Amino acid sequence: MLKIAYDPIYAHPLPEGHRFPMLKYELIPAQLLHEGVIKADNLFSPNLVSEDIILKTHEPGYWNQLRDLTLPVKEQRRIGFPLSARLVEREVRIAKGTIDGCMFAFDHRIAFNVAGGTHHAGSNWGEGFCMLNDQAIAANYLLDSNLAKSILIIDLDVHQGNGTAQIFENEPRVFTFSMHGANNFPSRKEKSDLDIPLPDGVEDDVFLGVLKNTLPQLIKQQKPDFIFYLAGVDVLKTDKLGKLALSKEACKARDKFVFEQCIANKIPVQVSMGGGYSPQIKDIVDAHCNTFKTAADLYF
Ligand SMILES: [Zn+2]
């Protein structure tokens, strides 16, 4: 059964003047329900992740300032929206949704989080709409609980997974792979175990070609027993922040290829959404829904 973490707090509105698209988080499950791709019992509402689990990934100084809403204004600006108790709770809940998703993935081969993919958050900083790094928190949880020994993080969001790269830079049990626009945010990149920076304007064939030439080999070499997939749809040509030029079809083919590799190698996968900033919200929601539909078709 396809299990999907979602809670109404995911779409908690930002203060006036902030144009980050929170709306997509309620539109994605609504659209999937409307089309009959999922039923209400596919969705589960995650609880709050405990502090001791957060502190395996994030430094206490940073987490305490986040929790107590005392993060300096300059560091709040780096996140991109002002701190509030609800927005912090939202991130804490999303992180638990990703951990729970891992547990479901062990049973059902795959599970989703409607949000997450907050890959710009490093061990002691938040950045680019990310405060806590959900997949990093979940990866550390799997390692600490002896549920996984070798983890591969496949980050195909258009932006580099700089926070994830930094968190695991000295952790040989987690292999970080990021394929992203070379000239995109963040301007100062960290070093993933494998970075593939792409030039501006890359289209469907080149993107899919690079992925197909890389991922099977990577899985063969690393032999992961768990995979995290960050399926950002800011790779679309319509995206106003990304600089690549993928069609919706190619974005769907990308997801399909990743899932086929997970299936062929019998590796459970947890999927978080990541970015999507097309001017038409329909483009964002369609592309994210395609990721769910592709999984539903292949797995269930
Ligand atoms: Zn992104």
Principal-axis shape equals globular
> What's the CATH superfamily, by name?
Histone deacetylase domain
Q: Which ions, cofactors or small ligands are bound in this entry?
A: zinc ion
What's the architecture, going by CATH? 3-Layer(aba) Sandwich
CATH class: Alpha Beta
Low-confidence stretches: none
Total strands: 8
Alpha-beta content class: alpha/beta
Mean pLDDT: 97
Radius of gyration: 17 Å
Number of helices: 10
The oligomeric state of the chains shown is single chain
Number of domains: 1
Largest sheet, strands/sense/barrel: 8 strands, parallel
In the CATH hierarchy, the third-tier topology is known as Arginase, Chain A
Straight-line N-to-C gap: 7 Å
Order of helices and strands: EHEHHHHEHEHEEHEHEH
Helix fraction, binned, reads 40-55%
Briefly characterize the structure.
The protein is α/β, with parallel strands linked by helices and 300 residues long.
Descriptive overview:
By secondary structure, the chain is α/β, with parallel strands linked by helices. It has a single domain (3-147, 229-299), classed as Arginase, Chain A (3-Layer(aba) Sandwich), CATH 3.40.800.20. The protein is 42% helix and 12% strand. The chain has ten helices and eight strands. Helix 9 (248-264) links the parallel strand 7 and strand 8 (269-272). The radius of gyration is 17 Å and the shape is globular. The protein starts with a strand and ends with a helix. The mean pLDDT is 97. The structure holds zinc ion. The site of zinc ion has 7 residues, from loops. Residues 157-159, 232, 234, 274-275 line the site of zinc ion (ZN).
